[in-house]
Structures are given as C-alpha cells and as structure tokens.
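FORM 7B: Structural annotation worksheet

SECTION A. Query
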Amino acid sequence: MAGDCANRRANAQLIGPMIIAGFFGTRTSDPGFQHILANLESGLIGGVLLLGRNIGERKDLEEMIRRITACKCLTSPFIAIDEEGGAVERLGGNVGLKGAPSAAAVARNSLASAYVTYGLLAQKLSLLGFNMNLGPVVDLNINPKNPVIGRLERSYGSDADTVVKYAAAFIEEHRKRRIATVLKHFPGHGSSSIDSHAGVADVGSSWSSDELKPFKRLIQLKLADAIMVGHLANSTKWGGVATQSGAHAIDRILRKELRYEGVVMTDDLAMRAVVHERKSASVAAIEAVKAGADIVVASRLKDDDQTSDVGAEINEAITARVCTNEIRISALKRSVDRIRRLKSRWTRKYHRENR
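SECTION B. Predicted structure
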C-alpha cells in the first residue's frame, strides 16, 4: 500500500486518460475552461465533454477547441460532444450550422439518404475539431412512450436489423473523418419508462435479451469504437445501475457474453440516477471503475455545483482508492491500454505522435 501511495503522481497520470470531464463556461477566459485545460496538460484527465451550456458564439467555441487541440498534453485528448440530431442537437442554427434530423426521422428515409445526412453531420464536427461523438443510439424502440428514447425519436426502430444498418451509416461516415463513435445505452434503454436523467431506470420488468442484438451485431461487424453503459438497473440480470460496484452488465454481459474487448464508458455520472444529495460524481466514478468502466464521464459533481474542478476531484478520488488497494493498478493499466488503442485509430494528433 505504501508503494502505491508513494507513486501518487504517477498513479494520477495513469488514471488521467480514464476521465472525460465537463465544465461550465463558453469562453477560454472562463474559470471552468481554465480548469479543464490545466487538467489536460497535467495529465489528470484525458478528454473534455462539451454540452449545450458550453455553446455560445461560434468563434468562442472554435477558440476553445483550438486551445484544447494545441494543448501541451501527455496524450491527445478526446474532444467529445453528443450530437445525435433531432432533440439532441448542440450545433445547429445556434452557431450558424445546419442541424441533423432525429434517428427516427432518418430511418423513415432511405439508407442512402442516411449516409448523406451523417456525412454532413460528421463533416460539421470535423471542421470544428471534435474527435468523438457520443452516438449513435442503438436502443430498440420497444416502449414508444419512453420519455428519453421513444418520445424523443432517438431510436431508429423496434427491430435490430433497422437499428444496425442506420447506426452503421452513422459510424462509417464519422470514421471517414477520424471521429470515434460510442454505441449507447448498453444493455438497452428502449424498454424503460423512466428517464435516467431524473432517476434510476429499473428495467427489470421490461428488458429482454433482444435489446442486446444491436450491440452484438455491431461488435461482430467491428463497428463498436466504444460502448456507453446506461444508468439502468435490472436485479435479476445484472444488478443495480450498471456503473455501480457489484453490478455485472460490463464484466458478465459485455465482456464475457458479447466478447467485447474495446473501450467501455459511462453515461454522464452527474445524472440523478447515480448522483444525489448524499452521493457525488466522485463516488460514482469510483464505483464505475470497480464495475469495469474504462472511461468515466462527468459533466459536474452535483446538480447545484458549477464551480468545482470536476476532473481533478474525480482523479483524486480514484487515486485515493488505488492507495488503499481498493482499485488495482493492473485493472487501470488494462483500461488505459484499451483507450490508447482507440486513440491510435481515430485521433489525428495521437496518430502523428506515435508513428
């Protein structure tokens, strides 16, 4: 134990690539952005998530991304956004760009049209400097009244064949522009009746193994750059929320049953399914790593907290558990190896640095 604590700085930098952090602010002069940049350059985090709250003037957005891209970082950072189209649209008319239709709208048209739509979406992200898009959604639209999937038209359809072919168009067009994509929300959010942004979505009475089919097929087709686990509970299948210590959606279903060897990341740990008045995103991050997540994503520590240094605090929390041997260095190294392999494929700067 003493040896691990003696190497605290090295451990913190080992953990860094496993954290994608959000911030508050729309300009490079904002304190939140300054925290993010400092944490990237010190190796405490490995990527940044930009949300709608970070999108102000286009020139400010471009300058933030330019500063991140040019950072003096140990490895090239992920610059991530969730740009699905439709209800989940960050970069449309608000910054003088064309928005994309929802997944359901795309699937109502031809597959050829989908390739055109997603080619334009990926081109938009590439021009701005993003290298990761948190999509596509590959949940089956089992419950059309689902408040976070069905009602928002975020699913391509209720059958796996439709979902797979349209998701493949999304992924392939992003790959052409060296943008990593993330399949979500494993093990399947489409049958839920609760929005996991508001609380735990228990799918024990609604979930079926059919919801694994899109993930399984896309893994077999080698189209799964990374997979996001949702905040979904199912006591008989994998236990509590998939990113809680003791839950088995990642280790038993994704790793063993589906034989997925790539990067697994969490949904935003700041969502109320995991964070509440007695539990911060730092605690949730520890649980997620223990459950097998390679990357933890946190946009904030708590609902009412807009000032904390999110990335640094989460890194410190995980590092402290390494000191007590609650989290094994060997497991962290396996996660970082997966992340490096992903970055080597889809991140331009990393590719140049490691030729």
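SECTION C. Observations
The CA atoms of residues 186 and 229 lie 4 Å apart. Confidence is low (pLDDT under 50) at residues 349-355.

SECTION D. Sign-off
Analyst initials: ____
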